[in-house]
Amino acid sequence: MLKNALPKIITNTLPGPKAAEIMNRRKDAVPNGIRCTYPCVMKQAAGAMIEDVDGNLFLDWIGGVGVLNVGHCHPKLVAAVKAQSENFFHGMINIVTHEGYVELAEKLAATAPTRGTSNKVMFANSGAEADENAVKIAKAYTSRPNIIVFSGAFHGRTLLTMTMTSKKAYSMGMGPFPDGVYRAEYPYLYRAPSNMSETEAIEYYTNALYKTFEEASPTEYVAAIVMEPLQGEGGFIPAPIEWVKAVRKICDDNGIVLIADEVQTGFCRTGKIFASEYWKDAGCEPDMIATAKSIAGGVPLSAVIARTELMDSVKPGIVGGTYGGNALACAAGLAVLNVIKEEHLVERSCEIGATCMERFHEWQKKYHIIGDVRGLGAMIGIEFVKDKTTKEPATELVNAIISYAANHGLLIENAGVYCNVIRFLAPLVITDEQLEAGFVIFEEAIVTCM
């Protein structure tokens, strides 16, 4: 059974002959700007495993970049989507109502750790759409024009979310960009100014936010502060709770909406259904959550969740869209929530995270090229450096490790400002045997490439 299989490469080269033929066709049909460096053409997938068209078996530690927390083709999702498809595929929520939209909204409203006594939910199709709509709602609520985002942030590839995204490789040549988006420094503690304690660093990054108000936008013009509880593309960097508390206080003191971008961190990835549950436990919960990726196990869906007064501040016609809350996607979303509960994926995320952290910290002591290991739950980043003192990024090494691993049946991906972080995003249904098989290939890659 593919779900319980282990990685195995049977062709003499990768990609294999059938995969190579399809990848050559891809070159002629798909824009070069949509890059793919992995020698894998999927035939079928289950759990944490992918079988390619040549019969090679790959262990997937990328999970569609955080989309597949419940794994590939979970039988309960397949059944839910099939059942819905026999009734109807689609009914635009602005035109007709379908119960799946309402039920999923009710469940997410009750689950989300946002500030307030009652929530409402709107659905869109992608993480970028969720982020963009969250900003629109905050502007409607506050009647203010500006937002604050952070260094290292990734929020999407629409015009607004490209502007919000820090790394300019994602927006090169796409200007002019919208006004009213200003950037503060995110607390990247591993690369904080030298000789600072964590307490001093938190104060430094908090002061950096105040400096943004002074130099970019006064607080009375700021509608929202948007941040990831754990930066994804930025390098899997958790936001320190003491800093989040400081940001929450700034928002409270100045009437600013705090938006948690949980596009990648949601649905058990960090050991909680939402990473901002850690914020709520510390008394600094967000006003609004934008989420997507694993919400529907691979069917396009995203959501914005916030208290009723925030959501109802938007005039009719400002938010919504043709496919937002599509019936098939909502059916998948409801199935995801059931799988999370029935298969105890919150607990499983913590178990996987603990196992990975133990192994990765062993490697950190063993190999001089591993500078930092960090994360929450089963969302973990390993930062590779040329020297632990200078912390010079080892970007070429990471590329080599990824290539070696892929050619031996393990799919892993980089992240970070310098592309020198390898991220762990394996499906939470991964077996212990598969996890161990991945460790073996990963360590072989490190040893071979260093």
UniProtKB/TrEMBL annotation:
Reactions listed under catalytic activity = (S)-3-amino-2-methylpropanoate + 2-oxoglutarate = 2-methyl-3-oxopropanoate + L-glutamate; 4-aminobutanoate + 2-oxoglutarate = succinate semialdehyde + L-glutamate
Which Pfam families does the annotation name?
Answer: Aminotran_3
UniProt keyword list: Aminotransferase, Pyridoxal phosphate, Transferase
List the EC numbers from the record. Answer: 2.6.1.19, 2.6.1.22
Required co-factors: pyridoxal 5'-phosphate
Under the heading CDD domains, the entry gives:
OAT_like
Determine the domain of life of the protein's source: Bacteria
**What does the record give under GO molecular function?**
(S)-3-amino-2-methylpropionate transaminase activity; 4-aminobutyrate:2-oxoglutarate transaminase activity; identical protein binding; pyridoxal phosphate binding
Q: Pathway involvement?
A: Amino-acid degradation; 4-aminobutanoate degradation
Keyword Transferase on this protein?
A: yes
- What family does this chain come from, according to its entry? Belongs to the class-III pyridoxal-phosphate-dependent aminotransferase family.
- Which protein, by its recorded name, is this? (S)-3-amino-2-methylpropionate transaminase
